[in-house]
Amino acid sequence: MNISTTRIVAQALAPFLAALAGAAYLTGCATFSADGGFGPVADGARENLGKELRWPRTESERAKIDTEVAEALEHVLSADDAVQIALLNNRALQAAFEELGISEADLVQSGRLPNPRFTLLHAGAGGQYDIEESLTINVMSLLIAPFAHDLEKRRFAEVQSAVLVTVLRLADETRRAFIAAVAARQSVEYLEQVQAAATAGAELARRMVAAGNWNRLDQAREQNFHAVAAQGLTRARLVEAAAREQLTRLMGLAGEHPPLQLAEKLPELPPSVAEMPDIEAMVLRNRIDLRLMRLQLDELAHRLGLTKATRFIDVFDAGPARVLQGPRSDAYERGYELSLQIPIFDGGGARLKRAEAIYAQAADRFAQAAVDARSQIRQAYAVYRATYDIAARQRDEVLPNARLIAEQDLLRYNASLVSVFDLLADARERIAAIEGYTNSVRDFWLAQSELDAALLGNVGSDGLPD
Question: How far is Cα 217 from Cα 428, in angstroms, rounded to an integer?
């Protein structure tokens, strides 16, 4: 091969060599992180929930968590305790963490050099040979490697945000389930008192009828109330069992766990409610679902740019080659081989239009999501305020009045002005008032959980943001 031919080959392979050097640099950076990208997710849980998050990847780490969970279950649980156990022990959440490993593997893979391709043609007859050998590599892959690596970085950040959304959703669902379970148990306790009063009333009515002091109609009314009270208690116990099972599932507890020891009752109402948050600041700063959609939008923008850059040619292989035509004693002819796709029938217009449409679609969805976020916060705050006002009125007016009526009727009974059945009716009404207050307190704490979820992101929905 003469000097001029060598120069031509070198010039032809210059872009290939430059791309190879750039891709080789990426290869040096393409390594797995020590924590698999879990650090930002754990930091997000600590910042937004004040809870510890761990990703056990060995048997010893899993055993340590099992021990901690077992020790926690030996004590009375608060809502925060239940949330912490769920974050440590829910296996569906652990499975979501594996998305980090999958995405990081894609990230590392995007920084690896593509394998070269060796092609051999060998034919011969009568001492004459036709041998062609070439070693080529996908130059287009090398050229776009930095862009592809950057896209995978963005995709990895998306997955981290998506996993954090899953963490927040689990915490929200667990807190709601805890509130529902405690409220259901309180409801059972009150309905047991109602049934006890109804049982006493029914027995007293039976005796009154037997003594000839009452008629069958009044007895039937008392017996009917007793039956209704028994049905209500059965339903309440079923609701309590379902609420406990829901909480158990979210906490990731298997069948052999000890019975859950929950707080005796829900926390009392706070002295006052929080003021309306700065919606604009909350949406821009705290909404993790919008942050995720922003990352997805940025990724699509980069993909659109890559599609434009590779619109006409997306297949380009190059590499050195040598050819022998003749006896085996002849010298090989040396050169290079280029293989590229010629955009005669398909100029990439359809791919470009598709990428543009996908990006425009994502931009519109992001804009609407921002509108929805502001509305969700306003609506959640309205419910939060209303449920507080309802519960406060129950506490400050309904309960004191029910107590006063019961006290006055007791005085009237002692003065033989009312019957024992009137006292039983007052007792039932007072118990109903207490249960109504308990339900209103439950609604308030659920509303506060809904508001917290709205401020952090749309984590109470069934799926991740699109």
Answer: 20
Element (H, E) at 117: strand 117-125
> Tell me: the pLDDT tens digits for 220-232?
777 777 787 788 8
Token pair for residue 342? 């010629």
CATH class of 271-311+349-466: mainly alpha
Max intra-chain CA distance, the chain = 133
Number of Cβ within 10 Å of residue 337's Cβ equals: 17
Q: Which H helix or E strand runs over 41?
A: helix 38-49
Domain locations in the chain? Answer: 271-311+349-466
Left (φ > 0), alpha (ψ -120 to 50) or beta: where does 114 sit?
beta
DSSP 8-state code for residue 262: B
**Residue 407 CB neighbours (<10 A):** 11
Cα separation, 364 vs 419, in Å, equals 70
Q: Which two tokens stand for residue 395?
A: 């506490």
Q: How far is CA 211 from the centre of its chain?
A: 66
State how far Cα 362 lies from the chain centre. 20
Report whether 437 contacts 399 (CB < 8 A).
yes
pLDDT tens-place string over residues 76-88? 999 999 999 999 9
Kindly report the pTM of this predicted structure: 0.77
Nearest of 262, 67, 175, 41 to residue 460 by alpha carbon: 175
Beta bridge partners of 123: 130
Q: Which amino acid is at 131?
A: I
Task: Say if CB 455 and CB 289 are below 8 A apart.
Answer: no
Higher model confidence: residue 268 or residue 8? Answer: 268
* Beta carbons of 288 and 464 less than 8 angstroms apart: no
For the record, the structure tokens of 378 come out as 């306003």
Residue among 436, 441, 394, 444 at smallest CA distance from 194: 436
Instruction: Determine whether 22 is exposed, middle or buried from the number of CB atoms within 10 Å of its CB (0-12, 13-18, 19+).
Output: middle
Alpha helices in 310-398 (DSSP H): 349-393
Count of other CB atoms within 10 angstroms of residue 122: 10
> Is there a contact between 261 and 77 (Cβ–Cβ < 8 Å)?
yes
Q: Tens digit of pLDDT for each residue in 114-127? A: 888 888 888 888 78
